[in-house]
Structures are given as structure tokens and as C-alpha cells.
Amino acid sequence: MGDAVNTIFINGTEYPFKPGQTVIQVAQENGIDIQHYCYHPGLSIAGNCRICMIEVEGNPQPQISCKLDCAPPPWIKEPLRVQTESEVAKQGREGTMEMLLVNHPLDCPICDQAGECHLQDYSYEVGQGQASTTTAKTKLPKNVPFGSKIVYDAERCIKCTLCVRFCEEITETNELSMQGRGDEEMVVMTSKGEFDTPYSMNIIDICPVGALTSRDFRFKSRLWFMDFANSIDTSSAKGVNIVTGGRNGTFLRIEPRYNASINDWWMADEGRVAYKYVNSPSRLETALVRDADGQFRVANWEDAISAAAEALRSNPGDILLDGGCTLEEMVLAKDLAGAMGKNAKFAAATGEGDGWLVTEEKGANAKGAELLEVARAKRAQAASVLVIEREEHVNASMREKSGAVVVFATDGEHVPESAEVVFPLPSWAEREGTLVNIDGLAQWMERNPAIGPNNLPVFVEILEDLIGELDDDYAWRGADGVRAEIAALPAFAKVALPWQTETPVGAGS
Amino acid sequence: MTVKVKLVNRRRSTFLDRLYFPAIFKGLGITFRRMFKKKVTMQFPEERWSVREQYRGMPVLVSDDEGRPKCVACSLCEYVCPPKAIYIVPQELEEGNKVERGPAVFDLNMLRCIYCGLCEEACPEEAIFMSQNYMVWGADRGDMIFHKEKLYELGGVRTEGVKKWKDK
Questions:
Q1: Is A177 helix (H, G, I), strand (E, B) or coil?
Q2: Would you tell me which residues 94-123 of chain A have a C-beta closer than 8 angstroms to some C-beta of chain B?
Q3: Which of A119, A243, A509, B61 is surrounded by the fewest CB atoms within 10 Å?
């Protein structure tokens, strides 16, 4: 076996492959797009959708590329030669597409998957536009609840079994199974009870069609109205890569994003619904300053900043940060505390973890705080500046006992009685910055402009303005200057910072 | 840059012009001549202009012959509308309806509408049509935003076209 074949010709170009790789994997690695439904790089290969047809030279029939081993049988010493765009391959795909569409309902106008549906995309590419059959489409159950979070539509299902394989191989809980034969085949729950496992909603993302949709996102918005941004999950400290989706100021959806070194393709359901407080009706939108008669009145930014500086001069104290603050914000908060001769601390909740994507540590940047030497506040303590975004990190008694005079809060409900000046704090989806996850991996969090109230000030700019008011010799650095400082810190010598590397660690398509 | 100026010498009015009577009689002459010709004006709103079938009047929503409102809130008209006159909030319809989805809010701002007909063209359900109604009025800006109920009332029932959900 010394001279085993280790290359394959795809569309006439020779590519090397590793033993065990199939044709679709080599093609995807080299940027050749082969249509697929039932193939998922994170799951076993089933080969039952039949859309990834390619032509193997010397073979009259098209073959499926997801299950075709790149290595030819041992008695053949020639590399395999395959064509993805030849007439035979195209005919194979067109035929498969027609069969898939025979019983697929024309639900696109009411289907949440429309816009990110593989069936829609591929039918646009290779669909015939005209069916050879005129029989009525099969009627199957629609709107079947799979637990409280997922809705299943058997008519739209193309029986790729991705969801079944996910429950067998990733969560190993086996809640789903295929039932029936032919056009009556559908996915059913094997357990009679609920399907509410902590990772169940991942099957919504991997479903190539609209058969599995989210109860939470159901009919909220069409995808083409939404804006998306690559962000980081802040509900736990694992730093799961996500995509935030919003429209007209409303946060609508969180979906996972591939990152090989953290979460692969998956995320926990807990993180997907961790956006609700961002859409709270009591969100703060303006700066508030307490009057002489004890009432809050709306102030412009300049007045609020000078009032805050006044309050801090007469009442200097520690700064209590939310555990989700970014590195940049923590550095500036430390400087603000330094200008008052005090310290910055952070508070973050701890809870249950599952050893995978949900950590016991809930502060998204707790590790970053450790590197920056920002101490953790374990119990209620006095502070003059309070930064509160998530209720669970700084709870009501901690807020009231802090006696903070300057408060940065996302929600108006979280402002303690003692507050003199209140600034609206943009939520994590509306801020950009760097987070260090629990394994010490620094990641960039992108801002989504379609989420949150309009015209909120940038948190780091307000912090810098405050330092400038308190310290006459302060030289403005801007967020970029702060980042350069972080990179120069000895604690960050071994951390790959996302703005320094061209491709962030583990990121992929 | 220099601008060339051309001076026009106006003719000064003569004595006859300044009497004005010849001009008055000339104008009255035209009026008398028109009296015996066919009228081109009509007494709106008692008399109304009948428009062609393909006339693009105000967009309206229609129901099918079973009385089912046809719109499923797919928001394609909202997407295609050039002046952004349409605003839709979808909702899930309860069990028993033939289709799962419909509009909770369908607002059509007739101050914005430019009568282009793209909404009718984009609609996959044949639920929105350009009606023959050219009399759109309102006492204030709020009146000019037409809501779902009013749009269905104006649209009425249309029996032709697809009935996609009839067997559901």
C-alpha cells in the first residue's frame, strides 16, 4: 500500500485528500459548492437526500458525493475523476429536486425558513419550474409541537434525518425517530413527554427546510428585513459564537455561528432566549439627572456628564461593573476609579453548568477581568458608580446597598434609589468590544445597528468623558488607543487578540 | 462668465387697447361659441368617470368566495413597496383556519402610495389588488392610513384566481 492514491480530480483539477474523506468534504475545502441537504460536517453521513449527485468518469450513473470515498478501491491505481457540473450530474440533481418538490407544499409565503431555505435556493438553481406529475400533494400533520420550543411541519419535511441524527449523536438523548414509509414518512418524538432538552433548538438551525421552526421566532419577521451581526453569547462565559438578528430596534433572534475551538455549530437553548430583556419596554433612552426636588429630569449628554463628575467629586468611591463588560470598558472603568483614587470591581452570577457550552461562571468577561486584575465583588458593597446590564449579575439588594450615585443601566427598573445621574447603557448586542472566554480565548463582539433605541451614546466614550472631567491632565485615547494598551499588557502577551489577527481563532464558514 | 442680455421692446398700448371693450367682446364671443358644443366637464361627485379595468387605483385586500381573507402576511408587498407605504405585523392564526398565518396589522399609508402596482405584482396569494377607486380622501393624516378591516371592506370578494388553501 506504499503508493496508495491520495489525490482526486474534481472538475479536472487535482486536489489532495486525507484518508477517509468523502468527495463533498474535499470539494468544500477547496471552495467547490456541491448542493446538499442531509450532509452536515458535524454529523454522521446518511446519504438519503440524493441532491449531491456528481458524475464519476467511467460510471454511467451519477453518484452521491457525500458518501463517495475519495480513495478508489485498492486494485485501482488511478485517482478518481469526478465532475460536479457535467450533464449527468445536473440531470441527477434536477431529477432529485423534482422528486423532493412533488409533495413539498407551496408554503414559502407563510414559512419562517423562506430566505434561508436550501430547498428554495436549490430549486431556484436547478428546479424545473414545471412538475411532471399532476397528482395532489400528500396531506400530513402541520403545526406539530415538539416540546414547547419547536414546531414541526411534516409536509415541509424532506426526510433528511439531520434532526434525528443530532439527537442520536450530539445530545445522545434519542428523542426523535422516523416513522412511516414513502410519502407518509415523518419525524416523530419517541418519548411521549416533552422534548425540552437544553440543546434541542439546534435542530431548527440544521433543518435545511422549514419543517422545524422556532416557537419563539415564529412569524416575528421575514429574514430579509433583518440585520445580522457576528457576536458572542454573553449568557455564559464559554464565549459561544453567535449571530444576532434584529429589525427596527427589536432584538429578534440568536443563532449559533461555527467556531471549531469553542462551540462547533451548536449552542445551548438558554443562550438563544437570553435576549428578551433587551426588548424591555422600560429601556432607558435618555440621560437622567436628579433635580433639587428629588425628581429625575431628562438632561443632554454634556449636562449629564458634568453633573456625574460633580457627584463623583463629592462622593468618590469604587466602581461596580457588570460581568459582561468588554475589556475596553473595564480598562476605562479602572482609569475612572483611578482618577478618584479608588478601585473597579465586577460582579457576575454563577449558576449551573453542563460541562459543555454552559459554564458555571455567568459573567461573559470574567476571565478578561482576571487578566486585567479587576477584582470580583462577591457580596454587596459600597460603590459610587454602578454599571448594570443583566439583573442576575447585580441583583436588587446589591444595587440598593451599593449607594451608587452614577448609574449606567440598560433597564430603568434597575436604577437604585441612591442614583443622582443615570446614563442609558446599550445592551451587549449594541456594543462592540473584546471578550475573553473562560478558556482564555479573546473574541470580538460586533455591534448590531438594528437592535436597541436610536442615538444611544457609546459607553466607552461616556466613560472617557467622565475621566476627562475628573482628571484635567487626561489625554483622550479612544477605543483604539485602549486596545493598543491592552495589547501591551504583560497579562495579554499570550492571548491572541482578535483585532490583531486577520482571521480570529477557530473562526470558519 | 458673461451673460448675454437681449432687450425686448414691448409695444405700448394704444388708445383702443386701453378702452378694454374690444377685448371683452372678443372673450364673450369665445364663450358663446362654446355654448353650442359638446360638454367636456362633468358634475363630480354626482357624475363619475368610469375607468378601465386595468386602471391602477388604491390598493385593497380581498377575500375569496368563502369569505376567507386571502392575505397571509408574507410581507412581500411591504418589501417591494418603493415608498414604504405598507406596514405589516404577522400573527399566528388559531386552529381551524385554513392557513396558519395572517396579518395582525396591515396598514396602508395612502399619503405615501404612488399607485405603482408592485404590491399586486409581488403578491403570491393574489390578495392585494389595485382597485378602481380613485377617490381617496381623509380629514387628517391619520385618516389616510388605511387599516386591515377597511382595506378588506373596500376590496370585497374576488372569485377568480388561485385558491391555494382550499383543501387544507
A1: strand
A2: 106, 108-110, 114
A3: A509
Say yes or no: A70 and A177 in one domain.
Answer: no
**Cβ distance of B92 and A218 shorter than 8 Å:** yes
Are both A310 and A247 inside the same structural domain?
no
B100: contact with A, CB 8 A cutoff:
yes
Chain-chain contact of B75 with A225 (C-beta, under 8 angstroms)? yes
The answer to whether B101 contacts chain A (CB < 8 Å) is yes
- For residue A501, tell me if it sits in a domain: no
**Angle at which helices A459-470 and A301-314 cross, to 10°:** 50
Q: Which domain holds residue A15?
A: 7-99
In a domain, A507, yes or no: no
**Chain B CB within 8 Å of residue A135 CB:** no
* Sign of the dihedral through C-alpha A241, A247, A248, A252: negative
**Whether A318 and A401 share a structural domain:** yes
Q: Chain A residue with minimal CA distance to B168?
A: A139
Q: Which among B73, B78, B100 has CB closest to A143?
A: B100
Domain shared by A323 and A253, yes or no? no
Task: Answer yes or no: do A262 and A396 share one domain.
Answer: no
Whether residues A341 and A274 share a domain: the answer is: no
Query: What residues does B132 pair with on adjacent strands?
Result: none
Cα(A172)–Cα(A317) distance, rounded to whole angstroms?
A: 51
Q: How many domains does chain A have?
A: 3
Neighbour-count burial for A215-252, b at 16+ CB within 10 Å, e otherwise? ebbbbbbbbebbebbbbbbbbbbbbbbbebbbbeebbb
C-alpha cell at A213: 421552526
A192/B16: higher pLDDT: B16
The distance from CA A245 to its chain's CA centroid, rounded to whole angstroms, is: 9
Tell me which residues of chain B, numbers 113 to 132, contact chain A at a CB-CB cutoff of 8 Å: 124-125
Q: Which of A99, A114, A146 is the last residue of a domain?
A: A99
| Residue A402 confidence (pLDDT) above 60 | yes
- Residue of A104, A110, A218 to mutate, interface with B, max B Cβ within 10 Å: A110
Q: What is the pLDDT of residues A265-288, one digit of tens each?
A: 999 999 999 899 999 999 999 999
Domain CATH for A60: 3.10.20.740
| B138 contact A CB<8A | no
Q: Give per-residue pLDDT as tens, A96-140.
A: 999 999 999 988 999 999 999 999 999 988 888 788 888 888 899
Q: Is the residue at A248 inside a domain? A: yes
CATH topology (fold) of B59-155? Alpha-Beta Plaits (3.30.70)
Q: Where are the domains of chain B?
A: 59-155
Helical packing angle, A478-488 and A459-470, nearest 10° = 80
Mutate to test the interface with A, among B80, B92, B165, B167 (most CBs of A within 10 A): B92
Q: How many other CB atoms are there within 10 angstroms of residue B153's CB atom?
A: 12
A301 with A222, same domain: the answer is no
Which pTM does this prediction carry?
0.87
Q: Do residue A314 and residue A273 come from a single domain?
A: no
Q: Which of A257, A279, A301 is the last residue of a domain?
A: A279
Q: What ipTM, to 2 d.p.?
A: 0.83
Is the pLDDT at A230 greater than 90? The verdict is: yes
Determine the average pLDDT of the residues in B107-122.
95
